[in-house]
């Protein structure tokens, strides 16, 4: 297939007249991709009952998506750079809609898992193409700060919006609409992209590192499967199978690094990661992603399974996170040019971790307004203050040739963190629930239900504690690694320096 004509000169840095309309199109597609990671959380019990999915396998509805998405984002970034960012964006939107249709019509668990993985594959084309387009269109420092504020708010708040939308659709329609809703959104983005988004692509070597993409995806999948095995009854951390998969995953990821150093045109140019500031930003993103995805999953389970909220009430009860993200993203976008990214990237994780610590003290009758509401506000504020500088920092000093790979790496770190975090925290929660029931066996059937609820609350409490630790570690990483000052943020002259 021939490459799209290079019309980058028409879009000129900061000069494309329809760039704000293009930002609207990018925002629509990014919201769809981000909320799809959490929209099925609330629908999980209904989908599991409908399709006969086992409790051990239900987490694959979440991780099949985040794994394929995170594992292939780097390849998606390269495809966007070389094949054409607009073209890649449009193919991603069409494929995402088709995969959503398959998932919404699924008749068995494996069909749903496969559709979710396929959504991840096309999301891996859509997301890096979106951010690379944003990078090319906005090079003026003030305009770029505003554009990244929109992008950052969606990245942080989209997950919470997914929980709300999942609650509404599950209660009033069907869990299937949590997937089918993507079809009109994708088609709208596609129609608007044709009119408002300009084509652009990078010059130079256009070969693809397929071995790298396969190795890193298999390595991540093996790690997640190992964590999942540790959560199963009869397996656990003492199981040889558990450590075999974890060990294989680590070996494959090491092999990926070796392959990247020897490949002419690597999937992930190590110069992108080895930069102190970008490396710190990516590591921060992994840790925040690990805590974030786990928090949303276990908060939804706690609200429904322990407090007895309906899907709709659970969705609305998740709104404070979105409110916090929107407030913080607005404040952060205005503060970023004055303070630089480092203070915000330390403040954000500290606030989010404080919210997690509050959630650690849940019980069977925890007050929403006195406890859950302020905890979620803190969590949202923390995420907003973290994501806005992250989006900007990850692209500081990146030459245009690497824009797709650098933006894909940022997205990938969050998704990979989410995959590993969900699997690991699920294992921690499951183990804690089992341990609680062993230590506090119910004396009679009447105590059985209460004991089960107390065990779940204890398990989720352990998960929130570890989430807080992961996110707090992100603040330490930011404090140690991030050295970029406000003067180093992208400007028309410095946006594409090598």
Automatic annotation (TrEMBL):
<feature type="transmembrane region" description="Helical">
    <location>
        <begin position="240"/>
        <end position="259"/>
    </location>
</feature>
<feature type="transmembrane region" description="Helical">
    <location>
        <begin position="206"/>
        <end position="228"/>
    </location>
</feature>
<feature type="transmembrane region" description="Helical">
    <location>
        <begin position="20"/>
        <end position="40"/>
    </location>
</feature>
<feature type="transmembrane region" description="Helical">
    <location>
        <begin position="416"/>
        <end position="439"/>
    </location>
</feature>
<keyword id="KW-0813">Transport</keyword>
<feature type="transmembrane region" description="Helical">
    <location>
        <begin position="368"/>
        <end position="396"/>
    </location>
</feature>
<dbReference type="InterPro" id="IPR011701">
    <property type="entry name" value="MFS"/>
</dbReference>
<feature type="transmembrane region" description="Helical">
    <location>
        <begin position="89"/>
        <end position="109"/>
    </location>
</feature>
<feature type="transmembrane region" description="Helical">
    <location>
        <begin position="344"/>
        <end position="362"/>
    </location>
</feature>
<keyword id="KW-1133">Transmembrane helix</keyword>
<dbReference type="InterPro" id="IPR005829">
    <property type="entry name" value="Sugar_transporter_CS"/>
</dbReference>
<protein>
    <submittedName>
        <fullName>MFS transporter</fullName>
    </submittedName>
</protein>
<feature type="transmembrane region" description="Helical">
    <location>
        <begin position="280"/>
        <end position="303"/>
    </location>
</feature>
<dbReference type="Pfam" id="PF07690">
    <property type="entry name" value="MFS_1"/>
</dbReference>
<dbReference type="InterPro" id="IPR020846">
    <property type="entry name" value="MFS_dom"/>
</dbReference>
<feature type="domain" description="Major facilitator superfamily (MFS) profile">
    <location>
        <begin position="22"/>
        <end position="486"/>
    </location>
</feature>
<dbReference type="InterPro" id="IPR004638">
    <property type="entry name" value="EmrB-like"/>
</dbReference>
<feature type="transmembrane region" description="Helical">
    <location>
        <begin position="315"/>
        <end position="332"/>
    </location>
</feature>
<feature type="transmembrane region" description="Helical">
    <location>
        <begin position="459"/>
        <end position="482"/>
    </location>
</feature>
<keyword id="KW-1003">Cell membrane</keyword>
<feature type="transmembrane region" description="Helical">
    <location>
        <begin position="121"/>
        <end position="141"/>
    </location>
</feature>
<keyword id="KW-0812">Transmembrane</keyword>
<feature type="transmembrane region" description="Helical">
    <location>
        <begin position="174"/>
        <end position="194"/>
    </location>
</feature>
<dbReference type="InterPro" id="IPR036259">
    <property type="entry name" value="MFS_trans_sf"/>
</dbReference>
<dbReference type="GO" id="GO:0005886">
    <property type="term" value="C:plasma membrane"/>
</dbReference>
<keyword id="KW-0472">Membrane</keyword>
<feature type="transmembrane region" description="Helical">
    <location>
        <begin position="148"/>
        <end position="168"/>
    </location>
</feature>
<dbReference type="GO" id="GO:0022857">
    <property type="term" value="F:transmembrane transporter activity"/>
</dbReference>
<feature type="transmembrane region" description="Helical">
    <location>
        <begin position="60"/>
        <end position="77"/>
    </location>
</feature>
């Amino acid at each position: 297939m021939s490459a799209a004509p290079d019309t980058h000169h028409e879009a000129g840095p900061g000069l494309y007249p329809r760039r704000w309309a293009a930002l609207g199109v990018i925002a629509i597609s990014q919201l769809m991709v981000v909320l799809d990671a959490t929209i099925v959380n609330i629908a999980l019990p209904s989908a599991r009952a409908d399709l006969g999915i086992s409790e051990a396998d239900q987490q694959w509805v979440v991780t099949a998506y985040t794994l394929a998405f995170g594992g292939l984002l780097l390849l998606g970034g390269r495809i966007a750079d070389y094949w054409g960012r607009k073209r890649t964006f449009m193919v991603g939107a069409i494929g995402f809609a088709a995969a959503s249709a398959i998932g919404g019509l699924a008749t068995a668990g494996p069909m749903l898992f496969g559709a979710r993985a396929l959504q991840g594959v096309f999301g891996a084309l859509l997301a890096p193409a979106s951010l690379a387009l944003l990078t090319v269109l906005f090079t003026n420092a003030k305009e770029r700060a505003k554009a990244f504020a929109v992008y950052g708010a969606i990245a942080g708040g989209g997950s919470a919006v997914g929980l709300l939308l999942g609650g509404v659709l599950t209660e009033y329609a069907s869990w299937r609409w949590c997937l089918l809703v993507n079809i009109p959104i994708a088609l709208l983005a596609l129609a608007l992209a044709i009119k408002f988004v300009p084509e652009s692509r990078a010059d130079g070597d256009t070969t693809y590192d397929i071995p790298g993409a396969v190795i890193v995806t298999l390595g991540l999948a093996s790690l997640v499967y190992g964590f999942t095995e540790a959560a199963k009854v009869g397996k656990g951390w003492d199981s040889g199978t558990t450590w075999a998969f974890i060990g294989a995953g680590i070996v494959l990821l090491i092999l990926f690094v070796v392959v990247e150093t020897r490949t002419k045109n690597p999937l992930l140019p190590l110069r992108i990661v080895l930069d102190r500031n970008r490396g710190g930003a990516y590591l921060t993103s992994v840790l925040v992603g690990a805590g974030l995805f786990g928090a949303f999953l276990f908060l939804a389970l706690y609200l429904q399974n322990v407090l007895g909220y309906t899907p709709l009430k659970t969705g609305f009860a998740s709104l404070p996170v979105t409110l916090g993200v929107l407030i913080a993203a607005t404040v952060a976008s205005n503060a970023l040019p004055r303070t630089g990214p480092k203070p915000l990237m330390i403040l954000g994780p500290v606030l989010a971790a404080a919210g997690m610590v509050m959630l650690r003290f849940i019980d069977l009758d925890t007050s929403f307004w006195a406890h859950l509401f302020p905890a979620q506000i803190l969590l949202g504020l923390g995420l907003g203050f973290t994501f806005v500088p992250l989006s900007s920092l990850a692209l500081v000093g990146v030459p245009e040739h690497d824009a797709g790979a650098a933006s894909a790496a940022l997205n990938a770190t969050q998704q990979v963190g989410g995959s590993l975090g969900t699997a690991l925290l699920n294992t921690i929660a499951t183990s804690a629930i089992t341990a609680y029931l062993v230590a506090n066996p119910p004396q009679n059937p009447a105590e059985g239900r209460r004991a089960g609820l107390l065990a779940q609350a204890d398990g989720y409490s352990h998960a929130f504690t570890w989430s807080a630790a992961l996110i707090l570690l992100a603040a330490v990483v930011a404090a140690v690694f991030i050295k970029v000052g406000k003067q180093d943020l992208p400007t028309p002259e410095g946006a594409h320096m090598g």
